[in-house]
User: Fold this.
Amino acid sequence: MNIFYLPRRDAITLAVFALVVLTMPIWLVPFGAAYPGLMQKFAIFAIFAVGYNVLFGLTGYLSFGHAAFLGVGSYTAVWTFKLMTMNVIPAMIFAVIVSGLFALAIGFVSLRRSGIYFSILTLAFAQMCYNLAYSVLTPITNGETALQLTINDPRVLDLMFSERGAGLPSPSLLGQGMSGIEAFYVVAVVLLIAFYIAQKIFVSPFGMMLRAIKSNQTRMHYTGFNTRPYALTAFVISGMYAGLAGSLLAATDPLAGAERMQWTASGEVVLMTILGGVGTLIGPVIGAWLIKYFENIFSGFNDAMLHHTFSWLPQGAQDVVVAITSKFVGEGWQLSLGLIFVLVVVFLPGGVMEGIRRFSSIFRNRREPGPTGALKTSPAE
Amino acid sequence: MTLLKRGLTRRRVLQTGMAGIIGSGVAPLMFTKGAWAQEFCNNPTGDTVTLGFVMPLTGAYADEGADQQRAFLLAVEHLNGEGDGGLLPTFSSKVLKGNGILGKKVAYVTGDDQTKSDAGRDAARRMIERDGAIMISGASSSGVAIAEQALCQEMGVIYMAGLTHSNDTTGKDKKRYGFRHFFNAYQSGTAIAPVLGEAYGKDRRAYHLTSDYTWGWTQEESIKNATEAMGWETVAAVRTPVGAGDFSQYITPVLNSGADVLILNHYGFDGVNSLTQAVQFGLRDRQANGKDFQIVLPLVSDLMAQGAGEAIKGIYGTANWDWQLDDAASGAFTRSFGAKYGQPPSQIAQTSYVQALLYADAVERAGTFYPPEVIKALEGFEFDGMGNGPTLYRAEDHQCLKEVLVVQGRENPSTTFDVLQTVQKVGRDVADYDASIFEGELGPYDAALCA
Amino acid sequence: METILAQLLNGLDKGGAYALIALGLTLVFGTLGVVNFAHGALFMLGAFCAVAFRQFITYETVTLDPTKLSPWGAPLEIKTPMAQIWFGDFGAVLINWSVPISILLAIPVMLVIGIAMERGLIKHFYKRAHMDQILVTFGLAIVLQEVVKAIFGANPISQPMPVELRGSADIGAMLGLTPGMVTYPIWRLIYFLFSASIIGAVFAFLRLTTFGMVVRAGMADRETVGILGINIDRRFTIMFGLAAVVAGLAGVMYTPLVPPNYHLGMDFLVLSFVVVVVGGMGSLPGAVAAGFLLGILQSFASMTEIKAIIPGIDQIIIYLVAVVILLVRPRGLLGRRGVMET
Assistant:
């Protein structure tokens, strides 16, 4: 059997997904989001969320510390740029390796506990990484200022072949510059590969094993399986995905700051996964896009733009409407996000994906109404 | 929604990689005016020019960010000929007429940097890539300013730094496209050391608490060097995390450390918190080594002083500008700002406002938005009438050289805004220093195509 | 010696806040079995009770004095707090003591908020997985803090302590050491005593009242108590309200130490969870002990001498302790077996 084989349904999903991702510069135009910086973020955080879902979605282990691996990946990538070459491929490889090693160490310890104890352990490790990166590890991380390239970096590999330029070099892929729209396509292709690998994991016997851990770990133990190596593998894989995402962040913008390791950043990927639909392949991607869209576009709305939007209303009503809506956009975008999140958890535990499923089942079963949203997740504790 | 629509015309979307997709019938939608006519990043082709303002609206420096935003909006107003014109009449260069920049009306976009480098860069990128900002200005933290400045260098967009006081901004991390009007920690050290020696004696033992990032480190170093040069001793220098809130666990060890001066290298809310907490700990009522214990806040602003209330009284620090200065320009700016917002401007408002005007002026004098020409117009520019006395934008490191104020918390403030008094104006000749004492290179002039 | 004593005091007052928050968190967990990620937000709401109260009584009337001009040429504004107009000198006293007085406001407000939270949202999550509870309360925490941000702004709002309680007390002299060697801010000492007495009161309530006895019985075996015909749900709801009050009071009294902003809750949330886990999920004495323990450890780790040996230890000590305890004693210091485990 071909190792690249995918079940027909998954292959279709991948094809559609590829089309959607690659045409982003077109269909995002009406949303005001078709600029490279944001589209790159869409693709990068989709990778992060897809990887996170391999752990959380399949095994049910809720990690509150995955941002640490993202940060480690970024730092590794920037250091690779500084010391070796501006080519992004070594940076990505090193970032995945190093964050995988971090994940191995942290996962090995954290997975000794389950449920909320596991969550707290990952949270504690991530916060330690963050606090150290901010303070005593400054020689490595450059602390709050964030690690950046300088003109006088060694870059041994690059400088063997070419002279030092006058300005700062920028990351490249096989001589092709990595900026703007080119960078988006590079990141998008990486996302498609990452998505494909996740699909393979989902349908593999290993993926079945992970789902079994989620549904009943005790039974697994009784049947003689040692689940920990499987969970640890999932943890490391998701850590590597996070590291890959981190390296791409650095590749599109060669700077690595400690903030991206903070626990709120870890919380964000949890939000993405839940919002989109935990345990599904597409869900986390949608969640990541929604949150990044909110963060970048919603947060940019200001009162003047609202007044413009509602200019068809009479003056008094306009002021009232603007005063109310302004609390939910601009600086208040997180309020909208929080509300949506709460509503999703309460009414749509399967996230956007469950919403879509329910919606389509209404049409499909119009004559024979069956149980909707029957997919109930019960994560391991 | 005009600001959003600018996103539709992003020509970078077209330029590369899209050839295959354009054939699919959506293409007509994408062709918009002037899409191919750009020879440098965000060349304004319409009748408006967009400036991008990034400031901390949340986080440890949010107070400063709010005032910065007020100043930028005021500057835009004045550039467009609205309001009372502010500093346009007093500014020594007379090319700004209040008809926008090169006849184009000034539009702006704003963003929150959350006092974080990552978020600041994201916001700046959004403004450059999506909103077509020709210039970025802002930041109230040196860490953020340095990160944004590096981005702007790559993108080929001029960066007019807001409040950034680290030596690195125009030292180790200086950039050809980055300019700083604010003074720096080195100048603070030069200015404040003699005043401290005079007031507290030359045989003091100092304890530093330092914000753990580029600004804190360089200020600690500069103040340490300047005070040690006149005979002070440094007992300890302890780093504290930015935005810590409660500094008590760092203040308790000061009590019995043998120090008799506490130097707080903190800014914004950190400075307010650490100062008020240090006063609560009774440090100022203490005796140590037979002398009265003293606290110094080397970089202080009106906003911090208002936040600290009682605690600021008698505390020495340095400032870039103060609204109570009696020159014509300072008066004009205070009137203009006060009339609009009902409160006097703080130093961050002044530096941000002046930076916006200086950029506009440089463009007018260069006669083009082409960044290399604008940079050349700013480099070595000598001007006056902005509230700081005669000022030079030094070409070697893009640092403004001007007077530095040594200020002290007022004992009996007449109003809630009258919190700092200027005890000494340290002349530009004294505050001057050799640009070559800091390493770093400016980099090339070459215009970039937004990346 | 003096340094160690000072550092110990600092640990106690820091620990007081941690212990109070962890106590409330544990009360909710022990009674309702809910992991409440919004508990930090309750602490923050308490702090903003104090802010709101002060803003209310210091609401100013503005009269213009045309004879004097402000520096920007407008007539000078003279502001008088309403409380002073209404109550005269008593108004001034009210403003001076606003923080302690706002405790009276915070108790009913936090009780109502707590009960509303439980009845309105959390009630629906008893039968769902712990993960769902964490997620919904996490979302709720975001909503609450953003609402506060929308109302009060993003900036910290400082709350002055009463003039009489400013300054510091000479603890060293009281203990017979050299005067002036160990001084400590009065308000921080009050904070410690305040948290100790609240903790005492909660324990007394649970131990000495019939209500408390029923609640404890319910914590041990909810079904049996229910079969006995006692409406345990209503009592548990009230316990949720009580937990909110405890968190809120901790927040009120904390305001003079660090000016509160909307983010205060999140800053404390992570810490308090670590505290609860270290103490042992579901163990009230464990939460209190761990709160003080971690406060003291954090304070000592910040000493220059300690930092010289292990750089950066002040930044990670709390998490390090949490990791070690969870690995060595999986159920925390005083936790019971089988809580939150499969």
Notes: DSSP finds 16 helices and 17 strands in chain B.
